[in-house]
Every structure is written in C-alpha cells, then in structure tokens.
Amino acid sequence: MNQNHNPAATAQAPVKPLSPWTYTNAELFELEYDAFFLRAWQWVGHVSDVPEPGDFVAREIGRDSVFVIRGKDRELRAFQNVCRHRASRIVSGFGQCRGVIRCPYHGWTYRLDGSLLAIPQQEHFPQADLASLGLHEIELDVFHGLLFVRIEGDGPAVAEMFGESSDYFAKYGVDEYQRCFDDVNEVWPVNWKVAWDNYLENYHIPVGHPALQRLLVENDEYDEYASGVSYGTFEIRDKPSNVDAEREYQELFHQGCTRLPPELHGKWVQFGITGNLGIDLYPELLDIFQLVPLSADSTMVRSAWYGHPDPSDHERRLRELNLAINQPVNDEDRQLCTRVQLGLRTHNYRPGPLSRLEVSIARFHETVRRRIPVTSLDRAPAHGKVASENARLATSAAGS
Ligand code: FES
Ligand SMILES: [Fe+2]
After folding, report:
1. Which residue of 177, 211, 213, 374 shows the fewest CB atoms closer than 10 Å?
2. Which of 100, 105, 117 minimizes the C-alpha distance to 54?
3. For residue 9, is pLDDT > 70?
C-alpha cells in the first residue's frame, strides 16, 4: 500500500500543479535536495537494528551517507559516514564494529562515540590534533523506536511533527518491533516528486491498483498537520475478493489481531511525511516507503518491514499475504510513475487540472514553491541560472 488517503473534498481555489521542467532539471534537483532532504528528518532504521554496543545501521540519503551506532555506554549516536582523513565512506548497511570504527582506506580508527582513537604511522602527521578529528556527529531522534537523523538545520522534533497521530505508534507498540523481512531497494527512473505526487493521491487506485480496489474502503478519519505529516485510515472490505491471497487476507484480518486494541483490528493506517517517507501501520506489521533522491530523473525507493518480535501463526501468515498483495502494488506504482516521468519530457506539455481528490498534491506543490520559489516559474531559467534566480525570488518574497 503506498498512496496517501485523501479527505472528502473541500472547496478551495484551484492550485496550479508544478511545471514539467521542475521534474527534470538537474540544477533544481540540488536546491530540492537541500530543502527537502538535508534539512529534514530522515528515517534510518529502528532501535532493534542496533541492539548491542558496536552495532550500526548506515543509510545513503542522496549524496550524503549517515550511520547510527550504539556506543559502549549503550547510547545511540548518529554520524556522517565520512572519514576525516581522505573522505572515504567508512561503513555500509547493517553491521557490527568490534570495539572501534575502522576506516577501510588507511585504517584510522574512531571510538564508538566518534572521537578519533588512532592514526596508523602517526609520526608522519606531525600537525595532526587527534582531539579535533572526530567524526561529524549529527542530530538523532528516536520516535517510538524509529531512528531519524537530521544532517542540517533545526525545527520541531519528530514527535512534534506527528502530533496526536503519535498515539497510533504507541497503540501498535512500534517501539518493540523488529525487522521482519529484508529491505528492498529499487531504483525508479523518475524524479522523486513524481513518486511523491503518486503517493499522495488515491484517485489512481480504481484504475491503477485493482487489488486495492477490491480490498479497501476509505474511511473519513484523516488529518494533515502544518508540519507536513498527514495520515488517513482504510478499512478492509467485507465482500470477499475473488483472488485467493486477497480473500485469505480478508478472512484472517477479520478474525482480528488479538494483540491490538479492538479499534485497530479492522484498519490500515497510513502516514505521509512531507516529500519522502510513508509509513503504513497494519495490524500485522509496519512498512516503510522511503524515497532517496539520486538525480533529477532517478530515485531509490526503499521498502522496509518491522513487526512484533513474537508473531502468532495468524500474524505470520498475514505478513506473507500482505507482501504478496502490496509488492505488486509497488510494481504498478513504479510503472505508473515511469510513464509520467517520460510524459513530462514531452515538447510543450502543460499540466492539466488537479481534482479535489488530489488536494494533497496541491498542498505539496505549494510547499515546494514556498521552500524553493523558482519552482513557481512556468519555464526553466537559463542554464546555470536556477540557483541565482531562486535566490533573487526568495529575496524579493522576503522583502514583500
Ligand atoms: S580515508 Fe579514512 S583512513 Fe584515509
Ligand atoms: Fe499507487
């Protein structure tokens, strides 16, 4: 499942969608990276990924890479994944540093708290001041067991962004969860905003996702916060699907997940966090849909799954069926988004109107325009001028 719930439509002035050039422009991509990724909380994993001192999880976030590691004092810390000597990436994926973090290039070693411990052949570095050459620590926030890092900037903590919807994470017991399937990383040949636009609307479900159409009914529980976090809920239809896996899922789902309070039994809860992170809370597991921007027309889509550490047989089967249903939906979205990215390059294409069912896209596009004013232009500035034109528009907006 990876599209956001939309509320019953409310009347409002139509918002013009972003112009096609904003989905293909490499210079703009760099500005977007700064505004939406570098300065925003980025999900990296769960506390259960790093249970013991020395355990780490490293993630690429666009051109940056970060890792979270548990220290000998059992504290979690986050660092930029770059050696202070010659910039080598130090760790990758999930792993365990035995006692020290060791750079694979020349062997500089760092303590688990990031401080520099030793430089091989240190006598050849007469000027080196070890105390000033520790790893760059970055902000870390743990939200119901989920690890978030922020490389630059400030603003609200993750819990503040989720507001009252945080209660869901408490009710499901997400802080107890553990990874229950291996992550899947796929590269989609699309701009990250194409994938996010698609995530934000359900208008495409009846045509684009027949399985979801058979299974789901939207209900009217929905909220969208000024922080950029939104959430909505779905119910599973009573009418049995004519597809075996879906029907089995419906039957088991309706028997309820006894671990959870009754009000959560019949629901899928779906969260969107501005620009790049979706979290679905199903009774049987939590899934992550994360966009990692690679270039103007290339995005890594990361999927991850966490669940209760001691699932019943019933839950286990629901998890298998969940993936059997939702992984094809993900493939459908990749194809739908790829078609859009190709279409956006079309000579003289101008975007059509957004429906009231696509109001979340309109809000997202307004956020993009507010953060990066140059995106309000119908045509791309001249080559090499995107950043300077953006700075000029930002200054004039600040002065008006
Ligand atoms: S780059 Fe890390 S030790 Fe040289
Ligand atoms: Fe979709």
Report:
1. 213
2. 100
3. no
